[in-house]
Amino acid sequence: MSGTVIANHGESGRSGHHRAVIGTEPVIEVRGLCKAFGNRVLLDHAQLQVFPGETVAIIGASGSGKSVFLKLLVGLLEPDEGEVLYKGKRVADLDRAGLDKLHREVGYVFQADAMFDSMTVLDNVGYALREHTKMSDEEIRERAAECIVRVGLKLEDLDKFPASLSGGMRKRAALARAIAIKPEIILYDEPTQGLDPQNITRIAEMIEELQTELPCTSVVVTHDMRTAFGVSNRIAMLHEARFAYIGTPEALMFSEDRPVREFIDEAMEEIRELFDAGTLGGANPIDTT
Ligand SMILES: Nc1ncnc2c1ncn2[C@@H]1O[C@H](COP(=O)(O)OP(=O)(O)O)[C@@H](O)[C@H]1O
Ligand SMILES: [Mg+2]
Q1: How far, in Å, is the centroid of ligand 1 from the Cα of 68?
Q2: Torsions phi, psi of 231, nearest 5?
Q3: Which ligand is nearest to the CA of 65?
Q4: Of the candidates 228, 96, 39, which has an alpha carbon nearest to the alpha carbon of residue 237?
Q5: What is the pTM of this model?
Q6: For position 35, what pLDDT does the model report?
Q7: What local confidence, expressed as pLDDT, does residue 148 receive?
Q8: Ligand 2 centroid to 114 CA: how many Å?
Q9: CA 69/CA 25 separation, integer angstroms
Q10: CATH number attached to the domain at 5-276
């Protein structure tokens, strides 16, 4: 295929399988997206394309509109202007059946986990299956059990209530809920927020593994650079209502663009630790000694 670019984030390290084909039709396409709350402009004609099989990390300062962007992607918020397309179809044009189909194909891991506290882990994880499929209670329990074990929880956790889970367990349960529908696309909002370094690494690895297991296409909103670099083929940085940078994690390191530079310099220490730990393949571009 001419004009095809392989976006490959490192052949070494644990990212060896991590490749996506760019040059095909994007799975998700955002065109001229605008969103403001009052006079606070969060998105001003933002553009982004996400290609089959890749993981795009969205970084940016706190309050820059990352969560709002993700909500616009799934139609939880309506854009003021512009459009979101899945596999070439405008979300705004989808009828009831089309939206249902979309919700069966897109898994969403909410920033605050958004578990129903009055429901058990089983009912939380099985929620989308009950809403969007004709699976029996037995089948739902089986599938939920499969997902729970996959994310590192125990079968006995199925009958617990979210309030009795630790932060790391809640994140895992939220992940299990998102993968229960065997999604083609997973949108993650701060999947590692509030976790200790060990759990951050484990969840990041899990996101990577799911990418090939399912397989799926992912967008990961995170303010954590370890997560962004650990999971993504490409990084998009939201700054002043637009994506100021879209490209590989490696090229991001060399960006001369001032706002990008400032953001990176601030995160430099975190990234240096990542290279030193061997999480990233290749030579450490920021090691000048
Ligand atoms: N539904 C809403 N109504 C009004 N303001 C909102 C709404 N959702 C988010 N905001 C505001 O938009 C800004 C960006 O929010 P958010 O997308 O959550 O930032 P981020 O995820 O990048 O930290 C914040 O100032 C927030 O208060
Ligand atoms: Mg957010």
Answers
A1: 6
A2: -110, -20
A3: 1
A4: 228
A5: 0.86
A6: 98
A7: 95
A8: 13
A9: 21
A10: 3.40.50.300
